[in-house]
């Protein structure tokens, strides 16, 4: 088994830097689009055999060092009582705006309410046996709450920010409920066989460092502390967190995901030698000529300066129009340039 990824999560020495890509099972791959053409996005998420198939595709095609479960961060929110659709972005018909709305939300039982996610993990553990580790994932409580309150994506997330300031008791009740749901969901993934967990806080960086520490950190810390993670590393990725790395570190993850707005070497200096990091190539570099991709890969590796505990990744998800050959080249460059 290729354990480079797990070893790097724990800060152990590796023979070469492990690499995987956020959204590596996605629209940039013709093989994924062939499967996706037969069903809707939600049907793909809810059909274990198909979800497992597209999870494995980039492992075969790109040669990455880890697979990540194909699903969506909002999958466990729907059984809380919010009807979810994608048009193409996520939309909830009835956003959460009042205390009564929060009280109506239920805490799902993952085995009963999202069995397809756990079945996908079980299939993948068999299919990936002896190959690469499987990463499970979920959204951080704040990012999930953003979608639940706004009802869809937003440029400024003003509705949830208004709730934070003007109705803090409603916000706190919602965040407590979402955190409990998240904890149950991620622990179920670990029980089903996920070998690492990534927590995506895509919108945590839209807040000031002070507001992040007050309104987000307590819930993410409670979530991470509530995971049964003795042998399961937790990667905590907050997009836009370059100005508050030390605060985000307080959440207690084992690995910090970094976006491309921060110098990886300087981030490691701030975080200290005991915190592994993941990142952080700008996703748009994959549109560049191959020699530019190689130079940018080398730059990120040089910033890390050979320190253990580095997982190479993009600073956010791979974009749908990236040529697959460029993603393959990036993975090859990481392995070749970091070979011990």
From TrEMBL:
Entry GO CC: cytosol
Superkingdom of the source species: Bacteria
Cellular compartments annotated: Cytoplasm
Family annotation (SUPFAM superfamilies): UROD/MetE-like (SSF51726)
Positions bound to substrate: 23-27, 72, 147, 202, 316
Catalytic activity as recorded in UniProt: uroporphyrinogen III + 4 H(+) = coproporphyrinogen III + 4 CO2
One GO term (biological process): protoporphyrinogen IX biosynthetic process from glutamate
Domain Uroporphyrinogen decarboxylase (URO-D) intervals: 18-27, 135-151
Pathway membership: Porphyrin-containing compound metabolism; protoporphyrin-IX biosynthesis; coproporphyrinogen-III from 5-aminolevulinate: step 4/4
EC number: 4.1.1.37
Lyase as UniProt keyword: yes
Annotated site location: Transition state stabilizer: 72
Keywords noted in UniProt: Cytoplasm, Decarboxylase, Lyase, Porphyrin biosynthesis
UniProt keyword annotation of Lyase present: yes
Record-level Gene Ontology MF annotations: uroporphyrinogen decarboxylase activity
Subunit structure: Homodimer.
Family of the protein in this entry: Belongs to the uroporphyrinogen decarboxylase family.
Function: Catalyzes the decarboxylation of four acetate groups of uroporphyrinogen-III to yield coproporphyrinogen-III.
Stated name of the protein: Uroporphyrinogen decarboxylase
Organism from which the protein derives: Geobacter hydrogenophilus
Organism taxonomic ancestry: Bacteria, Pseudomonadati, Thermodesulfobacteriota, Desulfuromonadia, Geobacterales
Gene: hemE
